[in-house]
Amino acid sequence: MEKMSENKCFGGKQLRFIHASASLSCDMHFSLYLPPQAESTSVPLLYWLSGLTCTDENFITKAGAQRYAAEAGLAILAPDTSPRGKDIPDAPDTAYDLGLGAGFYLNATQTPWVTHYQMYDYIVEELPRLIHSRFPVDHNRVGISGHSMGGHGALTIALKNPKRFHSASAFAPICAPMHCPWGQKALKNYLGDDPESWKTYDTCELIKEAKEKLPILVDQGESDPFLKEQLKTERLISASTDAEFPITIRMQPGYDHSYFFISSFIGEHIQFHQSHLVSG
Questions:
Q1: Which CATH class, in words, describes the domain spanning 2-277?
Q2: pLDDT tens string 88-107
């Protein structure tokens, strides 16, 4: 692992690293914010998963999260959104919603994606081992959040691993990828034609079977241009109501899909996670 950059920020450190990933069979970047409290004690950790076309740097430069993380004493880990490199498969037409920058936080089973596109294992298995062995973060106090495709990743990963992630939140998540163009394209290419294999990566399907009801917060802008066709928030509302799963879903008037939306509410999301990660 090699440190690419270090910047002091609100008394803490904004770090960026590159490392060789065994899960993805390529070099990967990730960014890590350590609050000032990490100088003297281990701190809770929040994973942030970004959306389509993003890298690990979008969130750390646009969201304004470091100020709130420093106040809360919370570290934030932002991995990249897909494997990358000259030999990594990409969409044949270089479309933004498949391939590079569009890993969808799942384990691909289909050619040519299967060798490198194992983002679920990278987030759930490989990164935790790396981070908890190298940095002063508490593996018993971990939350996860994300935006759009990353919101889908955060919710599905948390629902499948409620003992590892104690809180989850999302901004404008892809709530029902089985029922929207972005999700259907990704799931078919990465997992094959059988919709049954898609269910394990669909938040609404996972809520139906959830045994543990971890705290979840979702913010969705009412002026988001992707709301009706791609995000399907109404399906999440229905699924959580039917399953009696107490998710807090806030529809925010006038807000869109951008980082202006994220930066407006990121402080509240960090407070939400901090409140659930104080004692693990």
A1: alpha beta
A2: 999 999 999 999 999 999 99
